[in-house]
Amino acid sequence: MFQTLVTFVRDRIGFKRIVLGVSLAMLAIAIYVLVNKLKHINWSKVFSAISEIGPGTLVVAGLFTAAAYLTLTVYDYFATRTIGRDDIPYPACAMGSFTSYSIAHNLGATVFTAAVVRYLVYSRYKITAPEVVKLCFIAGLTFWLGNATVLGLGFVLEPEVVTPVVEAFGIGGSAVRMVGIGILVALVGWLIFVSSPRKFGRGAWVIKLPTARLTALQMVIGIVDLACCAAILYVLLMAMPHAPDVGFQAVAVIFCASMLLGFATHAPGAAGAFEATLLIALPPLGFRPESVVAAFILFRLYYFIAPFLLALSLLAIRELTSGHRSLDHLKESMAAIRAAEASHEAAKHVAVKPGPAE
C-alpha cells in the first residue's frame, strides 16, 4: 500500500512539485508574519540601536564571520578527501567553499547554484560533473548533521525558546523536547548505520558514505560552523540597548531553527522566514522587536552581503587572471551540471524499470 502511494506521488504528482509547493507555502506564511510584525516597528529606534553599537562589537562580529567562513572551507576539504580527490589543495577548497556558499546563499536554489560555482572553481583540476554532485552531497551532509545535532540538543535542553514559534499550531514544550529526543535518536541510528562501509548509486554516481568516526567529525565541523554564525547574531543582540541577560545556547537554538526554515523556503538569503522566526522567538526572551530588527539587518550585512560581494570579486579576478573567458566557462559549468543531473535522473529510472518477464 505504502509503496503504491509513493509510486503514485512520484509518477503522477512528482516529489519536486510537492517540495516546491511546500516551500512556496512556507515562504508565503513567513512573508505574511514578517509584514505584520514590521508594521509595529518603530524604525527610528532601529536606526538608533544600530548607531549605538560600538566599534568593538562590530570587530568581534566581523571576527566571528571570518571564523564561520573559515569553518566552511573545511566542508569542501573534507568532502574532496571523502570522494577521493586528495589532489585538490586546501587553497582551492577554500576558494570553492567560500565562493559557492556566499553566492548560493544570496541567489537561492542553493543546491544548483553551489554546484555550478564549485564546477567553475574545480574545473582546472579536471573534476567531473558527478564528482561535483558527490562533493555537494557530502558538504551538505556535514551541514545537516551539524544542524540536526544542535537542534536536537537545543530542543531537549531549551524547548521553551522554540515554543513561541510552534505554539500557534498547538505544540508545546514537551512536544518540542520529544522531537529533540527523536532527532538525537536518529543521529545515533545514523552513526550505527555507517559503522559498516556504506555506499549507494551505480557507476560514476557511487557515493561512499563517511565512516562513523568521520561522521562524528562532520558533526563537530557543523557544530563549530553554526556556533560561529550564531555568535555573530548573539554579540549584536547583546550590544543592543536594554538587552536581557540571555544565554548563548538559547539564541543559538533560535538561530539554527530560523536559518533552517529560511533555507527550506529556497528564498535568496533565506529572506522572510529567517527574520519572521527571529521576530517571533526572540522578544519572549526579553529582546525588544526594534533590537531584533537592528541585529538581523547587521547580521545580513556581515554574513550575506559582504561575503557575496567579496566572492563575486574573487571569482572575477581569478577568471580574468587565469586567461579563461569567464562567461564561456560559466556556461560550460552550468551545462555540465545540468547534463549530470539529467544523467542521474535517467539512471534512477533505469534502476527502477522492471525487467522482462521470465
Description:
The protein is mostly helical and 358 residues long. The chain has one domain. 76% of the residues lie in helices and 1% in strands. It is built from 14 helices and two strands; from the N terminus they run αααααααααββααααα. It has a two-stranded antiparallel sheet with strand order 1-2. A hairpin with a 6-residue loop joins strand 1 and strand 2. Helix 2 packs across helix 12. The longest helix has 33 residues.
Write the layout of secondary structure elements.
Layout: H1 2-13, H2 15-38, H3 43-51, H4 55-82, H5 90-107, H6 110-122, H7 129-157, H8 163-166, H9 173-193, E1 199-200, E2 207-208, H10 212-238, H11 248-264, H12 273-281, H13 289-321, H14 326-352
Number of domains: 1
SSE pattern: HHHHHHHHHEEHHHHH
The Rg value, from CA coordinates, equals 22 Å
What is the beta-strand fraction?
under 5%
Enumerate the spans where pLDDT stays under 50 for 5 or more consecutive residues: 1-15, 350-358
Our measurement of the CA-to-CA distance between the termini, rounded to an integer number of angstroms, reads: 25 Å
In round numbers, the mean pLDDT is 80
Give the neighbour order of strands across the main sheet: 1-2
Q: Helix amount, in percent? A: over 70%
Given helix and strand content, the structural type is: mainly alpha
